[in-house]
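ARCHIVE CARD
SHELF: 3
SLOT: left
DATA:
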Amino acid sequence: MYKDMKKEFFGAKKETTNNIMEITAIIKGLEQLKYECEVEIYSDSAYVVNAFNLGWIYNWIKNSWKTSGGEQVKNKELWQELYSLTKKHKVKFFKVKGHSDNEWNNRCDELARNAIKQLNQT
């Protein structure tokens, strides 16, 4: 959303995880931006929000994409792509409670459910 403009898009994928789709959704949103922007990302995914707000992603990068436990970071390629996109913009992440009274989070859930229905009909 920007001023009075709003653009919605959605998608689904078989054989995936919610974490992959949460990261992918933000990537796809950032890819829509045509020039450097100040962006506020609201997500109910603590995994994504905490990766940036708690600095996990910076530690993963510093540790060659390994977790504090020494394991490979899951979805590394997606994280790398998302990190690259966040460097092109001034991005702030905000955690919202899922399945609550947040109008836009509820709309995103609705779009995701519709995408899954469409995928399952093919």
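SLOT: right
DATA:
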Amino acid sequence: MKAQPSFPARVPGLAHVPGLALCAAVSAGALLLEHAERLTTGNAWLEALVIAIVLGALVRTFWTPPRYFESGIQCAAKTMLEIAVALMGATVSFGAMAAAGVPLLLSIVATVIGAIAASFLIGRVIGLPDKMALLVACGNGICGNSAIAAVAPVIDAECDDVATAIAFTAVLGIAVVIAMPFIATYLHLSAAAGGIMAGLTVYAVPQVLAAAGPMGTAAVQIGTLIKLVRVLMLGPIVAVLSLFMARRAAGTHPAATGRRVSLARLVPLFILAFLGLAALHSFGLLPEAVVAPAHNASGLLTVLSMAGLGLGVNLRDVTAAGPRVVFVVTVSLLLLGTTAFVMLHAIGLA
């Protein structure tokens, strides 16, 4: 007798419901734990954004959701994440970036390029293959999983290498998010400096919200802008790598043609939406009645997306990928953080 398809398969329009419901449950748990923190200690030492990542990762580590959960989890981790970031643009003003000036922008570019070069060299010295070292370097220097996913097809990376690089950057990225507010406090950084530090070291845009959130609104705003500058560098990096690989292929196989990189990959639409809303808000063209609802919606969707990101991380992958990758990612993160701190001193913000 032929097996009947599952409910999501019979109703394609509802395919995301199980995964989104799971993410919503994790998010609700995170919000309740944050509320409990406030009631018992007076402060939310770990905000719901961070708690959602941790809870999601713990769930995924001890229980693998059935396959029909995956589309909803991916929807939360990607689509809802992008919508949340785009909506957050309605609350951001470019005044913070303008006040920082050209030296900060140049410092961001130098930090990203230096981080990629240093991480790649460390990987090669420790014995990682070229492509694995490059995946880790780009993920570490730009934006974690998104950078790895964008770079992988350009350099023809193996699936195992991609999965390993993503697993480690995701797990260690969570550690950076949790540690960043405590590091900023220990180093006596101002809200602006703490936000810049988070923007320069944390992997993903929404994770900057979690890392900078405890430091205040100013930290979140400038941290997000700094992070977006890093994300925007993904386009030039991918383009350069594509040209390099095309040249190398042409050298090996003269008849080979170069790869093409689409504009959608170079500048994701959610970044354009974020920048567009931020520009409208910066020039006073966005009604104030829109700003508060956009802020609230962005916050809730971000918690939901962080739950989805956490549900994609199996903590056991740390032991499966090997000590060399652990070493490279950890040392690269330490170097990135140190470089960011030195840069803050160099431009007089620390």
